[in-house]
Amino acid sequence: MTLGEDLPGMDPEAPVFEAVGFAVNGRRASVVVDPRTPLLYVLRNDLGLKGTRFGCGTGQCGTCTVMVDGRPQTSCDLPVSAVAGRHVTTVEGLANGDRLDPLQQAFIDEGAGQCGYCLSGILVSAAALLESNPQPTDQEVRAALDGHICRCGAHTRIVRAVRRAAEGARA
Amino acid sequence: MTAAGMTAASGDGPGDGPKPGDRLDRWITLEADGSATLHTGKVEIGQGLHIALAQLVADELGLPFERIHVAPVDTDDSPDEGITAGSRSMEETGLGIYRVAAEVRVTLLAAAAVRLGGPAAELVLAGGEVRAADGRTIACTDLAADGLLGRAFTGTAAPRPLAQRRVIGTSVGRPDLLGKVTGGRVYIQDLELPGMLHGRAVRPPGPNATLGAIDDAALRALPGVVAVARDGRFLGVVAEREEQALAALERARRSTGWDAGPDIPSIADPRYLVAAVSAETVARERSDPAALAGAVTRLDAEFTRPFIAHAAIAPSCAVAVLEGGRYTVWAHSQGIFRLRNELAKVLGVPTDAVRVIHAQGPGVYGHNGSDDVALDAALLARAVPGRPVRVQWMRDDEFAWEPFGTAMVVRLSAALDGSGRVVDWQHDGWGHGSGTRPSMAARPGVASLLAARHLAEPLAGAPPQVSGDLRNATPPYDVPNQRIAGHFVRSAPLRTSSLRGLGAHLNVFAVESLMDELAGVAGVDPVEFRLRHLEDERARAVIRAAADLAGWVPGERGDGERGRGMGYARYKDSSAYAAVVVEVEAGTEIRVSRAWAAIDAGMIVSPDGLRNQSEGGIVQAISFTLHEAVRTEGPRVATRGWETYRVLRFSEAPTIEVVLLDQPTQPPLGAGEAFTGPVAAAIGNAIWSALGVRVRDLPLTRERVVAAIG
Ligand code: FES
Ligand code: FES
Fold first, then answer.
1. If you measure CA to CA, which chain B residue comes closest to A66?
2. A123 close to ligand 1 (CB < 6 Angstrom)
3. Are residues B147 and B232 in the same domain?
4. Average pLDDT of span B74-101
5. Domains parsed from chain A with CATH numbers
6. For residue range A25-39, what is the model confidence (pLDDT) as tens digits?
7. Do residues B149 and B15 both lie within one domain?
8. What total of structural domains would you count in chain B?
């Protein structure tokens, strides 16, 4: 009998290692891996970018969210081959050197988060939202984050922090 | 959130916090750069505990908050403080460390008085030095150089008076958030050691499953696989790369000779508990026949709750290495010493052959898989000596195998006299108990850790403690006749342990629902009705504060779509006082749109920390109450992902206002679990106010509300 749910995208048979090239946070990256490897593991284990977090591995919780060519996307169920030649932005790419993105600063100022594990993915989705909609309403922020789970219940502060960043940008 | 716990340790280790006779420098050491280090066995689980502890020490030592460090929590170095749970961390460790810090201050000043001459009262301790009235100074590290802080803690020094507090009671921010918003290596999941391998445990399909023959040669032949470990029905794979471990796991799940075994008995209706064999404990009994004789109206009601999952945002993770016969294990356990002891027991090695180092994980809210995964990592590390193995549970493993908060049933019967006073209160509660953490039952042949029961020579699962089911079962109100009884059902279809609030979630829901119903029968506003039955001024104050914040109108009723209700409790009857009013909107969904809360957690050390914990507790309690239920299907747990185990989402989260009632001269009280019960009750009461129906079975889903309307 079969145990549990199938794991996405990983057929154990006959892996072929291939070189995959893409850009991460504005820098070129090239890895030699089984091209079916989810982007999440390549980011974390090959590129050392641990900020993109594993939460479910099945696209249900949002902790692993990155931007691919500016659009938020879960990386746990995205084969690395799908980002060949494209631009990936992770939470590490939000700050400008040592200068925090206003969104990150707003999260700190609002004390938005408890354990904080959900924040990487939420920040990436929020950054993508503000890029396309610089002055979102409360409802628009909530809708943009609805695919993210925060088990600690920091929702209210998180929504406030996103709106604070938006207001700061307008001021 | 200080997560759920138990009422008493079962005699297997020291209690929490400094004890008279401890060396002062067991708890606080002074560093050459003028900073101080605080040593505690209590771990940071995202609840801000280490920040609050550092604030207490900073004020006593006259140092800025930034110059207090908290030492890593490690069984080779830290004091054994049992587990970080039960809202006890501030009450025991916090207060104790505060007193140690006071004694360090007094000790330093006395030593400085000798060295500098003149009375200690004229000396000032600040910034890592002691200054005399004439301007001469001496560094604290000089004073402490000859082992001054090796003295025994006596508990006799009083902390500085209120007027001298600078850091306590202020919001110092969240220094930890910087790493969390920039994607830093913050969590145990991010730990990477040289030569580290990736392991996965291949869990059985269900708790009753058995494992026949497996083709482990085929598993070993998969790319990158370096070991396949099997012991009884424990099976694990280890590979060079994480995705290779996943591929091997996938293959092992498909190809092994599992027999799922008999079905799990149905848990769909928690009333199965009432029919089961149980043992009775009477928590309280009091009788006043004269008062009982005045009873004119009696209300009876039955309340239920399903099994609820901790459902941490990320599944549990651990890293272990076996080197030179000694295991080193990094774990996000809430009790690293107890975990160490139990790992040694299961691995069959002496206690000092295991070292456990705490690493931060995602929020846990009680006892989840974070101890269990440490044993998985150790078992897999044993298969590859010298190489660290990182084990990450899969999402469905965490949902299916974590110990759940127990299903419960509560039956209440209460009577009013002719003047509208409650004169009788009878409580019968059924549940499977909680508190099955490692080493809580330190008996031979028994272990908490999951894989221990799957080994070829299995250890029996740790027996739960009954007391958790009775948490907050006794109403906080003045009632002359009471009988509060728990019925502990030992044989459980699923593993249970401590989940935030323990029995308080259902017990407070039941108590506060019935109080509202009694108020209705008595024709008294429910807020006023509570106040009439409460003498404790702090209890009355939080109820009034929440009602004022909400703009509660005596006698207010909902309008068929919206309504508001209140819930109150003092957690454990000894921790924080909490009251909350919620507004429910009953449209296409049942939604809590707003919450107004008040909390008295004694002396407030970190105002924003307390506020944050309260808000999080409120949101999680809404999620528990409106959505959450573990389900089974045949031999397995069926709720194995976020699509089947529904929790509150961003679109549903309420607006929350919290008022903090400070008691600067009272001890700090645990607050992490304060709102779990009151929120559940407030929602039930708000649904009543809005729609005129009572739903007494959790979760309070739309289907159930619609069915109650009829
Ligand atoms: S880890 Fe990718 S969505 Fe949950
Ligand atoms: S802060 Fe813990 S999951 Fe969001």
1. B183
2. no
3. no
4. 86
5. 18-93 (3.10.20.30), 102-170 (1.10.150.120)
6. 999 999 999 999 999
7. yes
8. 3
Beta carbons of B604 and B625 less than 8 angstroms apart? no
- Do B354 and B487 fall into the same domain? no
Co-location of B386 and B499 in the same domain: no
Which residues are CB-neighbours of B429 under 8 A, at least 6 positions away? Answer: B408, B409, B410, B411, B469, B470, B473, B485, B486, B487, B503, B506, B507
Q: Is residue B681 part of a domain?
A: yes
Q: Give the one of A52, A117, A148 whose C-beta lies nearest to B362's C-beta.
A: A117
Query: CA-to-CA distance for B35 and B67, rounded, in angstroms?
Result: 5
> Are B384 and B516 members of one domain?
no
β-strand partners of B381: none
Enumerate the residues of chain A whose CB falls inside 8 A of the CB of residue B613. Answer: 114
Q: Which two tokens stand for residue B12?
A: 């297997």
Report the mean per-residue pLDDT for chain B. 93
Q: Is the ipTM, as predicted for this complex, more than 0.85? A: yes
Is position B292 within any domain?
no
If asked whether residues B397 and B409 sit together in one domain, one would say no
Q: Is the pLDDT of residue B327 over 90?
A: yes
Give me A115's structure tokens: 């354990």
Q: CA of A94, closest CA in chain B: separation in Å?
A: 8
Average pLDDT over residues B34-43: 93
Q: What is the mean pLDDT of residues B628-656?
A: 97
Residue where one domain finishes, among candidates B344, B377, B401: B401
pLDDT of amino acid B5: 29
CB within 8 Å: B177 and A108:
yes
Per CB-CB distance under 8 Å, the chain A contacts of B617 are 153
Q: Does any ligand 1 atom lie closer than 6 A to the CB of residue A64?
A: yes
**Structural domain span for residue B656:** 283-287+404-433+468-709
Query: Taking the model in full, what pTM does it have?
Result: 0.94
CATH code of the domain in which B89 resides: 3.30.365.10
pLDDT band at A11 (very low <50, low <70, confident <90, very high): low
pLDDT for B88 equals 76
Cα torsion B614, B618, B620, B624: sign:
positive
Is the pLDDT confidence value at B13 over 60? no
**Are B207 and B101 contained in the same domain?**
no
Distance CA B710, CA B706 (A): 6
DSSP B158: P
